[in-house]
Amino acid sequence: MTGDSSEEKGRVLGIDLGTRRMGLAVSDPGRRIAQSLGVIQRKGLDRDLEKLGQVIQDQEATEIVLGLPLHLDGRESQGSRRSREFAAILEKELGMKVRLVDESLSTVEAEDILLQADLSRKKRKKVIDGLAAAIILRHT
After folding, report:
1. Residue 76 gets which letter from DSSP?
2. Domain coordinates in residue numbering, the chain
3. Which site among 6, 41, 62, 133 is 20 to 30 Å from 33 CA-CA?
4. Fold observed for domain 11-138
């Protein structure tokens, strides 16, 4: 989180979009610190939107940052297309600005951090998506 612009205020919700889970993280109001909120198990678009709407309200988020999975050479992937489609739905249904951010290697970085912390595979699986969302926010 850079928090450099005086115009940029309010919490940002970071989302690491997966097909089965969404990792979530939120910034502080000054956009300097990102904190993992864990994951939401995906169970259909309506439920996903309901859960995200509740998180946005609870966290008082003013913007969403959604990870955009690109290939290492910068090309779009199938996941990129899913993220772009989901961003459009979020903007329309939740009325929130959504910024797409290259998430290349965020999950790899999260895995490295968790391995260094000596977490078991089972514990890593529970927290990796939320940590990846925090890493996505950190790189904005």
Report:
1. B
2. 11-138
3. 41
4. Nucleotidyltransferase; domain 5 (3.30.420)
Q: How far apart are CA 75 and CA 52, in angstroms?
A: 28
Chain centre to alpha carbon of residue 127:
13
CA distance 123 to 108: 16
Establish how many alpha carbons lie within 13 A of residue 118's alpha carbon, considering only the half-sphere containing its beta carbon. Answer: 0
How is the beta sheet containing 34-41 ordered, strand by strand? 34-41, 21-27, 11-17, 61-68, 98-102
Please report, in angstroms and rounded to a whole number, the separation of the first and last CA atoms in the chain.
6
Quickly count helices (H) and strands (E) in the chain.
4, 5
Write the pLDDT tens digit of every residue in 84-124: 999 999 999 999 999 999 887 666 677 777 677 777 877 76
